[in-house]
Amino acid sequence: MFSKYLASTIAAFLGISNAACNYGTSEFPREPNVPASKFSYTGLTGPLNWYGLNETANAMCDKGMNQSPINIVTTNATITHGASVSLNIPSYPGGADFENLGTNVEVVVNGTLIDANKTYSLAQFHFHTTSEHRINNEYYPMEIHFVLEAADKTIAVVGFLIDFGPTDPLLSSVFASVSEIPSPGNVTLTGPLDFSILQYHLTHNTIYRYEGSLTTPPCSEKVKWIIGTKPLYIDVDTYKEVKKVVKFNARYTQDGLGQANLLENAATELNR
User: Fold this and answer.
1) Domain residue ranges in the chain
2) What does pTM read for this prediction?
3) I need a labelling partner for 141 at 20 to 30 A (CA). Which of 180, 227, 230, 248 fits?
4) Whole-angstrom Cα distance, residue 107 to residue 26?
5) Measured between alpha carbons, how far is 130 from 126 in angstroms, rounded to an integer?
6) How far, in Å, CA of 193 to CA of 230, rounded?
7) Chain segment 224-263, per-residue pLDDT in tens
């Protein structure tokens, strides 16, 4: 009873969460000023209580049965060649807006994804540490998500895992100014951005596909996930600089697609 009361009290102060993974889409339009996140990844505002923060808006966080992220294995994701999709993001020689939203840092750029004769428009891309998805049970140090929306409001996310190694030029340019946005609401510019490495990775390698959800509140389902099997790379020193700002912001691994939601299952077991 106390925990439910505390959750409702928190919800009254916080309202619907900002800075969700689909920030910049029609569901969460971009605001004139950068909105700091009103949820977190720890404690009573973390993933275990996202449902409690707003039981109406965040219902799928507790009850959804096709939630993300997942442990990707050949039995729960379709593996196809990346040439089946077309990701086109123009270069930004002057850099792009780089924002600290509290739970993540994101870059605001335009672009398109064409998949199955359907076009999605890019809203932004952001980062998670550690990776949210796992491949055959293994985490990666980071993950990058490109969030796109079609004219019918459906969402697609193109993700790339990030492993340790010499930093790819794209990530080097993005994170060159990460120390300039140490606090929620801070905005700066990235270095020059060239996305050709992403297009190369997709068209020359296989991809994982599955239908899941947003990995932040409101945890909406029917999200098309496309994840590259070829990782990007970041060196340890750059990673440490990123971690000073981003810290930990990964939702826990969900149950198998179509299986019982882990939170709802836990609540049922506790109430027996």
Assistant:
1) 2-270
2) 0.89
3) 180
4) 17
5) 13
6) 20
7) 999 999 999 999 999 999 999 999 999 999 999 999 999 9
